[in-house]
Every structure is written in C-alpha cells, then in structure tokens.
Specification:
Radius of gyration: 35 Å
Helix content: 10-25%
Number of helices: 15
Mean pLDDT: 82
Shape: elongated
Strand order of the largest sheet: 9-10-11-13-12
Structural class: alpha/beta
Number of strands: 19
Strand content: 25-35%
Largest sheet: 5 strands, mixed, barrel
Distance between the termini: 84 Å
C-alpha cells in the first residue's frame, strides 16, 4: 500500500493539515473487531505532535471507531534535536510518567548517544518504567537511527513522594471530558432545562434501565447525567473516552495531598467487571469532600467521566466529573399471571446451584408466586429449611431429581457376550483396595454372592491384609482399618 493519507481518507476527513495529508501510507493494521486502526506513513518533513493528535481524533470521529493511531516514519536526515521535546510529547502517550521529571533537563547529543541530565529527582522512576529503552525504540521507529540513551543526575525519590507527585500531576490536568460527549440537540437542551428546574430529580429513569430508583438519586459531585450507562466490561475497551457506568462500591480510600486537595478513590463493580473511580476535591470544599469520602461499601453509584489507564494506580480508572448516588429498585415479576416453578435446584445440588432454599422461596413469595417445587439432585436436604421457613400463603412442592435404573428389563442391566443364561448360577463379586493403582495398591476385602434364578444361594466375604498401612482416606471411604485386616 502506497497512497497519500489525504487521498485515502478524502471521503471521511476533508480538513487534514497539509503536513499530515502529504504522508504516504505504507502499512495499515486494525483489530479484529474493527474498533482500533493504526496507520504507518512516510513523511518528507517532520510533523508536529499536535498535528498528529488532531488527525487521530478527526479520523476516529470520521470513520466512527474507538481510536486511530498514526506512526510517522522519516528519513534519517530529518532527525534534529530541536524536535526532541516534541518527540517526548509523542512518547508521553505510552509513558505518562515522563511528566515533570524531565523539566529543565540538560539534553545533549553526540556520536549516536543522547545524554539527559536531570535537574530533579526521579531517575530511578524513569528507569523503572523503562523510559530510556522506550525512547530509544521510538527514535528507531521514527528515523531508523539507534541512539544510546543515558540518564545522569537526579537522585532517587521515595515511594510516598512518587505517589504524591503523580497524584498532583493528575489533579492539575484540565478536565476535557465534556469534549467526549455528543453535541446536544435543541430538544435535549430544552429537556435538560426542564429537569434542572426540579432539584430532586438528577437522573433519567430510562438511563438506569429500570434497575434503580431514579427519583431517589442524589448528586454527590458534578451535574445531572443524561446518558445511558454501559457495562464496565464495555467501558474498559473505550480508553480515553467519556463513559457512564453504574455499579456498587466495594472499597474506598481518601488521601490528602500537599497541593491542598484530597484524592478519593473508589473501587466499583457492576459484576461484569470492576474498575477504579478517582476524584480530586479541594480541601476547602468541605461539604463535597464529606460526601465523597463518606461513601460506604455497598453504595450504588452512577458515574460519568473520562476512562483511561492510570499509571499511578496501575489500573484502569475513571476520572469522575459527575457522581450520583442511586438506590437499587428490587426486581419484580410484573406479569399478571404468575408462574409456578416446578424444577428448582438449591445449593444442596452440588456444582449446579448456589442459592439457599429459604432465599428462593422468599423471593418467589415476594413476586406473588403461590408455590415452588424444590427438586435437588439425588437428595432432600433442603426440605427441613423450607418446612420451617415457609412464607405465609405459599406452598413448597417437595420433589427430587432422582437417578434410577430400569431393573425390570434384564437386557438393560446385564450386557456383554456370554452363552450362559441369567437363570444359571452366576457369581457376583466386589473388592475393596488401598487405592486405584494396579502397580502399588493391594486388596483389603473380597465379597461375593452366588446367584441361581437371580436369587442368592450362597455368599462369601473375607478381609485381606495388604501388607502395609491402609491410608486414612481409604479407611474413611471403605470403613476398613489396619485392625480389621490384622
């Protein structure tokens, strides 16, 4: 493939910068789901990072995909140290820890070696995140030149200092999340104005898919949320975009920073996945800080914000700009004619169900059902719990999923080739052993019966000393111990 970017995307992007549009595509890749595209292009002149980012955003929006990445390739002669700072901007997309540590750095280039003299601490952090190797590889990919990257100066910092620096950088970043929201129509703006006039209503019931009580919603941070939430499993595939999720809090942490802010981090799950929700609050905003730091485990939240990989937390995180507390609306059976479940397993059915019988019958009664059949696998262990906890005006139908064999039809019981008839004398025997290995285990018991006309006419049973200790587990299974075979 050798075609100009402007020509290749002319039907989608009509306003490409001249520097980007002149690039010649030599390779293109994409993910199997066609949501992420990468363009590899050669350029005759250096393209600034801001033009590359502008192209990526415009192309992604035009062809309606999650992301577009442009990887520029230049002739070796175009490498110039005056562009080094701009090259670092491109590197920050993949190594965000670069922020701050390279400020005021003394950078020199000679004999295929780039020396970076740090004037701030943090060299150990840069090396931990493999900054030299990644910068070296980026220059190879862009210019085909292999430079040795050396970091000098800059002492080590403590983990506490690193946590604080990273959090303060995150807190200082501007919030661009509104740029990811779709433009509002005139009707949507009118509806938002109407909703804003009703202080108690902060979220549309429809956006909660009727799983939560929208009327009870309470804004903890930001503004009302009008978008429909998506699952966390889908959200984690939309990095760098604005998303709306709803889920339950299962862990929380608040940490005061030297910048005069407090970072509140929540762990949230919707049972399709889990992620972190992070918020920076000024310490003087006491009311908001009290609300957010007081969120308890089990609280259901509707969250809107930009989702991305957090280098500080080493996890995917939403930088929330709107957080709304909601109450779960209990599920209900709204069908007029109620059903009767005739085949329900409880946690007494091993490997088949996990809910205890009392919870099941109580839920059925709450939904207006009049009865339920408990039919566990081969046991009736749930019957006592059901009997002693029977809801009022409710009936439990006691049953069991039994395992049976047809012992009437002889051909269904006995199989194999033999000239003898079933009415002749037959020996049926069984053995117990110390285990299942034919090499190392031995017999501990032999039992047999003699049948004629399928009636027992004689029997035989004897214990056998295996010549070594019978394992405790075998004794537990067979009831045969060392003393029985002595």
């Amino acid at each position: 493939m050798n075609i100009a970017l402007s020509e290749f995307l002319k039907e989608y992007c009509t306003e490409l910068s001249e520097s980007v549009g002149a690039g010649e595509i030599y390779k293109m890749t994409y993910t199997p789901d066609l949501r992420h595209f990468s363009f590899y292009a050669r350029f005759e002149g250096y393209v600034q990072s801001e033009d590359i980012f502008a192209f990526e955003n415009a192309a992604a929006a035009a062809i309606k995909v999650d992301s577009v990445r442009l990887y520029p390739r230049y002739d070796k002669s175009l490498f110039d140290m005056k562009d080094f700072t701009d090259i670092l901007v491109l590197l920050k997309r993949d190594v965000s820890v670069v922020n701050g540590f390279l400020d005021d750095a003394d950078i020199r280039c000679s004999d295929r070696k780039i020396t970076i003299g740090l004037n701030h601490s943090g060299r150990d952090i840069l090396e931990r995140f493999r900054f030299p190797a990644k910068l070296r590889q980026l220059i190879v990919n862009m210019f085909g030149l292999d430079f040795e990257i050396e970091l000098i100066g800059g002492g080590a910092i403590t983990s506490e200092e690193f946590d604080t620096i990273t959090a303060e950088v995150e807190a200082s970043l501007p919030d661009y999340s509104d740029q990811f929201a779709p433009e509002k129509t005139a009707e949507e703006m009118r509806q938002e104005q109407l909703l804003a006039a009703v202080p108690t209503r902060s979220v549309d019931n429809d956006s909660l898919d009727m799983e939560f009580d929208g009327e009870s919603a309470e804004i903890l941070k930001g503004r009302p949320i009008r978008e429909k939430p998506i699952s966390i499993a889908d959200a984690v595939n939309m990095l760098s975009e604005r998303v709306v999720i709803v889920g339950d809090v299962f862990a929380s942490e608040s940490k005061e920073l030297r910048s005069g802010k407090t970072v509140v981090t929540l762990s949230v799950t919707d049972y399709s996945g889990s992620l972190l929700v992070k918020m920076f609050v000024k310490n003087e905003d006491e009311d908001e800080l009290k609300l957010l730091s007081g969120i308890k485990n089990g609280t259901a939240l509707l969250v809107a914000g930009k989702i991305d990989y957090d280098q500080f937390a080493k996890d995917i995180c939403i930088m929330a700009n709107s957080v709304i507390k909601v109450k779960r609306a209990p599920k209900a059976d709204t069908y007029p004619e109620k059903r009767v479940e005739l085949h329900c397993h409880t946690n007494m059915s091993a490997m088949d169900a996990v809910t205890d019988p009392v919870t099941l019958i109580n839920r059925a009664a709450e939904w207006g059902h009049q009865a339920m059949a408990i039919t566990d696998h081969g046991n009736v262990q749930a019957f006592p719990d059901c009997m002693y906890n029977m809801p009022k005006n409710f009936k439990v139908i006691y049953g069991m999923e039994a395992y049976v064999v047809n012992d009437i039809e002889r051909d269904m019981v006995v199989y194999g080739d033999d000239d003898r008839g079933l009415d002749e004398e037959i020996i049926v025997f069984d053995v117990e052993t110390t285990g299942l290995s034919y090499r190392h285990d031995r017999l501990t018991e032999i039992g047999a019966v003699k049948l004629r006309n399928l009636q027992i006419i004689d029997s035989f049973n004897t214990k056998v000393n295996p010549g070594f200790h019978i394992p405790e587990k075998i004794t537990e299974l067979t009831g045969i111990s060392d003393s029985d075979v002595a």
